[in-house]
Structures are given as structure tokens and as C-alpha cells.
Amino acid sequence: MLAKRIIPCLDVKDGKTVKGTNFINLREAGDPVELGIRYSQQGADELVFLDITASHEERKTFTDLVKRIAANINIPFTIGGGINELADVDRLLNAGADKISVNSTAIRNPKIIEEIAKNFGSQVCVCAIDANFDGNTWHCYTSGGRNRTDKELFSWAKEAENLGAGEILFTSMNHDGVKTGYANEALCRLSETLNIPIIASGGAGNKEHFKDVFIKGKADAALAASIFHFNEVKIDELKSYLNENKINVRLC
User: Which of 1, 66, 77, 137 has CA atoms 20 to 30 A from the CA of 40?
Assistant: First the structure.
């Protein structure tokens, strides 16, 4: 059985790591490279860096920052935000990124997933999905949670898989930053529907939430931000806890 992965997520705006609640009310959390180094040393399996306003502001993702990250950490990392064409993917991979996350662009132009998989391999393409549950349906959103679309979570995730996405990164907007646990029911359904890894995002508040997302949500990886940024949970301690609870993780 593959080890479950712990992935700190760094949302970057104007060169600084930020974190909000339900995608709003952002506050600064530190330098993204320094945080990345810290998480790598603590035993993170991967990192995700998201330029959270690139799509909304219609600009390219931060190539210089990617080069700094690659020069200072030795674990895989994913870059997302403002990726609109294959040239962007090529630029970021050449700068040192291991994977590329597409969200808004993929919803507007699903063929981009197929093109990335064909040219760089499925393992490079992470399809990120931001979705909000309105009581009946999980609606997908673009532009950092600003714009609701007609895409529905489960059908869009399956379409992305069929197009060649190597992983799905699902963020529950309802759970984002509120620290009450992940959207385990939806995650479980995704896991049972798809044949590619599912990364859970949105809702981590304590160590037990990670145990639940792996057991109840059947996620392959758990992504979190604020509990790591503000030292509420340390990654090495989290992994020891998960190991004690019979969850297969890579220990330092």
C-alpha cells in the first residue's frame, strides 16, 4: 500500500504566504521559501504553491519564486495559478517545479489537461477543483472561488481523469480555513469513483482530522495550510500520531 502523503499548501499573494477563511479575509503567514524549507525539514512529502490571484488578475505565475523554491528544497512541489497554455507548463517545469496544478483554465478549456498529459505525462498534471456545497450540489468555482460555474464536482473530476489528469486536488470551500475537519463524505465518493489519487484540502484543524480523512475520506494525501503556518501542528509529530494509529506514512 502506498504511503499517505502530508502536503503543506502555501497560498502566495504579492510574494508572501497568506491564509484566509472560506477563501476570504487573508492574513500573512510568512516567506514561502522559508516556510517550504521548514516543512521539508519537518518531513513533508510534497509542497503545493498556489499563486492565488494570478487567474483573477490574468497574469503569469511567479517563475522567479519557483526557481528559488527549487534551489532550496529537496522534495517534490506543485505550482498552480495563472497557467493558461502549454508554454506556461514548460516554463514552470524548466524553473524546477515537479507538477502543475490547473483549475480555472481547465474548466474553461478542458483540453489543456489532455495536452499537458500528452506532452509532459499525466503525473505532471494535477487538476485542482474548488467546490462549494449548497445543500444539494457541489458546484465548482473558478478564479480563486470568485465565480460559480455549471460544473458539478463528481462529473467534472471524472471528466478530468478521462482527459489524463494524474491527480485530483479537491478543496471544499465550505470547509476552507474553518478547522472542523475535511469533507470526508465527498472525498470518499471521489475515491470510490476515480482511479487516480485524491488530495484532500480544506478543513484541517487537528491531528484527528488527518486520521479521519485517510480512513473515512479514503484520501491518498491530505493538504493543509494554516495549522502548519501558525505552528498549531508540526508535521513530524503529525506523522508519528498517524503511524501510531496504523496509517501508513513515510517517517523521517
Answer: 1
Residue 199: phi, psi to the nearest 5?
Answer: -100, 120
- Of 28, 14, 55, 78, the residue nearest 145 (C-alpha): 55
Listed by start position, the domains of the chain span 5-244
Protein fold of 5-244: TIM Barrel (3.20.20)
What is the CA 13 to chain-centroid distance, rounded? 16
pLDDT value for 56: 44
Residue 24 CA, chain-centre distance (Å), reads 17
C-alpha cell at 240: 508519528
pTM, 2 dp = 0.92
Q: C-alpha distances in angstroms, 121 versus 5, 72, 110, 115, 126?
A: 21, 25, 16, 9, 11
Average pLDDT over residues 141-149: 86
Is-contact 7 221, C-beta < 8 A?
A: yes
SS3 content of the chain, % helix, strand, coil (to 5): 40, 30, 35
pLDDT tens-digit series, residues 194-250: 999 999 999 999 999 999 999 999 999 999 988 998 889 999 999 999 999 999 999
212 is catalytic: no
The burial class, CB within 10 Å (0-12 / 13-18 / 19+), for 91 is middle
Note if 51 is an active site residue.
no
Residue of 45, 51, 130, 176 marked catalytic: 130
Residue 131: closest CA among 92, 76, 189: 189
